[in-house]
Amino acid sequence: MTLLQDKVAIVTGASRGIGRAIAIELAIQGAIAVVNYASSSAAAEAVVAEITAAGGQAIAIQADVSKSDQVDALVKSVIEKFNRVDILVNNAGITRDNLLLRLKTEDWQAVIDLNLTGVFLCTRAISKIMLKQRSGRIINITSVAGLMGNPGQSNYSAAKAGVIGFTKSVAKELATRGITVNAVAPGFITTDMTSDLNNPEDILKYIPLGRFGQPEEIAGMVRFLAADPAAAYVTGQVFNVDGGMVMA
Ligand code: NAP
Predict the structure, then answer these.
(1) Of residues 197 and 122, which shows the higher confidence score?
(2) What is residue 13's predicted lDDT score, i.e. its pLDDT?
(3) What is the CATH number of domain 8-241?
(4) In sequence order, what are the residues at sequence separation of 6 or more whose Cβ sits closer than 8 angstroms to the Cβ of residue 218?
(5) Which of 74, 123, 193 to mutate to test the pocket of ligand 1 (most atoms within 8 A of CB)?
(6) Is the beta carbon of 37 within 6 A of some atom in ligand 1?
(7) Is the CB of 235 under 6 A from ligand 1?
(8) pLDDT tens across 71-122, in order?
(9) How far is the CA of 191 from the centre of ligand 1 (A)?
(10) Is the minimum distance from the CB of 139 to ligand 1 under 6 angstroms?
(11) Is the peptide bond before 200 cis (omega within 30 degrees of 0)?
């Protein structure tokens, strides 16, 4: 019996980066990984192939999780196939960076629509199923930017701070029904999202551990929060996985 034996885990934005590492980690622990993606179908199928080659279970499902109808379709296909959802990892996210005065309304809106509204849409749809099951784990990927702010990322920081408030509110709403809701706040992790930073050396000065993190290091925290009974008494919390960047 593995840690997450046959638990059904939806990971949004799992074709690349942190979401990919989370889907693989949960599947290694025995979960059936639902690898959601927006447009990278080949990459998502490659994640599924990697999991199945290692003896795990996974399927890829396309859905733009910033759109209510697509979230509903995603949940419908998962329920038709597996009839339950045990773990939801709200990971899909984008950046559209610019300084405030240059930030276009459409770039503000796109980031809020996916990084905040997408978390709301998936959590609302899936918590309905978890409420009937009277069990579930919801894990939201926020960012240290939502805690400390970041110049050029007012849209992203606002969305990620919003996810933290959302996490705490929903944790209180669902606590009596066996559902925990927590957030993980990565620092700088090596993925496509951080591949074009023009000042990596400057950033390293603020990371006590002296390096960027790897997607697998976020997946490790998610594995803990998904595990039963290890994390059963943990809800409404934000866990920084950031090499020590933010110390409260
Ligand atoms: P990434 O490498 O750019 O991957 C983003 C993932 O999100 C991809 O799988 C992408 O799918 C998916 N996605 C994009 N738009 C979507 C949509 N509308 N619906 C569904 N999926 C969508 O990003 P990452 O660095 O792994 O980031 C993952 C999460 O961690 C994000 O929430 C990000 O804000 C957060 N985070 C990252 C860092 C970091 O340093 N990397 C730090 C703090 C927080 P496609 O491949 O189909 O486009």
Answers:
(1) 122
(2) 98
(3) 3.40.50.720
(4) 18, 21, 22, 141, 184, 186, 189, 241
(5) 193
(6) yes
(7) no
(8) 999 999 999 999 999 999 999 999 999 999 999 999 999 999 999 999 999 9
(9) 9
(10) no
(11) no
Q: How far is the CA of 162 from the centre of ligand 1 (A)?
A: 17
Catalytic residue list contains 206: no
Question: How large a percentage of the chain has pLDDT more than 90?
Answer: 97
> Residue type at 78?
V
Name the pTM for this structure.
Answer: 0.99
Q: Are 36 and 10 contacting, i.e. CB atoms less than 8 angstroms apart?
A: yes
- Which residue's entry shows tokens 């599924």? 48
Cα–Cα distance measured from residue 130 to residue 240, given in angstroms and rounded to the nearest whole number = 26
CA distance 248 to 246: 6
Q: Where do the domains of the chain lie?
A: 8-241
pLDDT tens, position by position, 25-74: 999 999 999 999 999 999 999 999 999 999 999 999 999 999 999 999 99
165 Cα–ligand 1 center, Å = 20
Quote the CA–CA distance of 218 and 240 in Å, as a whole number. 9
Q: What is the DSSP code (8-state) at residue 116? A: I
Sign of CA dihedral 21, 10, 85, 158: positive
Query: What's the 176 CA to ligand 1 centre distance in angstroms?
Result: 31
Structure tokens at 196: 């074009």
**Ligand 1 contact via 213 beta carbon (within 6 Å):** no
Mean per-residue pLDDT of the chain: 98
Nearest ligand 1 atom, CA 15: 9
